[in-house]
Amino acid sequence: MTVRGLRGATTIKSDDEQDVLQATEALVQEMAQANNVLPEDIVSVLISTTADIQSAFPAKAVRSIEGWKYVPVMCTHEMNVPGGMPLCIRVLLHANCTIPQKNIIHIYQNEAVKLRPDLQK
């Protein structure tokens, strides 16, 4: 097995705790399912948010997923670059897997599909 990085991003409509938690959970679950990754395969999860998200820690959503309680998760803020996408949650999930790098399925939801149109299927 090799450690691979799975990328994903999503956006929310407003900085609301429930929106942050629901969007994060949906994104992480789709990332894991699309790549057949189980919680015990996950090395760590790094989540960044744009500075306009302050209502909740997205890591809370990850730890609340069945079987994910002990997955190491860390949150940080994304760089505040002029013209950057607002209300955006980005995830980098490190997992032990046998999938070749070119076959990893990266997940972009909502407005975040604009971040990596080259990865859209």
TrEMBL record:
<feature type="binding site">
    <location>
        <position position="7"/>
    </location>
    <ligand>
        <name>prephenate</name>
    </ligand>
</feature>
<protein>
    <recommendedName>
        <fullName>chorismate mutase</fullName>
        <ecNumber>5.4.99.5</ecNumber>
    </recommendedName>
</protein>
<feature type="binding site">
    <location>
        <position position="108"/>
    </location>
    <ligand>
        <name>prephenate</name>
    </ligand>
</feature>
<dbReference type="GO" id="GO:0004106">
    <property type="term" value="F:chorismate mutase activity"/>
</dbReference>
<dbReference type="GO" id="GO:0009073">
    <property type="term" value="P:aromatic amino acid family biosynthetic process"/>
</dbReference>
<dbReference type="GO" id="GO:0008652">
    <property type="term" value="P:amino acid biosynthetic process"/>
</dbReference>
<dbReference type="InterPro" id="IPR035959">
    <property type="entry name" value="RutC-like_sf"/>
</dbReference>
<dbReference type="GO" id="GO:0046417">
    <property type="term" value="P:chorismate metabolic process"/>
</dbReference>
<keyword id="KW-0413">Isomerase</keyword>
<keyword id="KW-0057">Aromatic amino acid biosynthesis</keyword>
<keyword id="KW-0028">Amino-acid biosynthesis</keyword>
<dbReference type="InterPro" id="IPR008243">
    <property type="entry name" value="Chorismate_mutase_AroH"/>
</dbReference>
<dbReference type="Pfam" id="PF07736">
    <property type="entry name" value="CM_1"/>
</dbReference>
<feature type="binding site">
    <location>
        <position position="90"/>
    </location>
    <ligand>
        <name>prephenate</name>
    </ligand>
</feature>
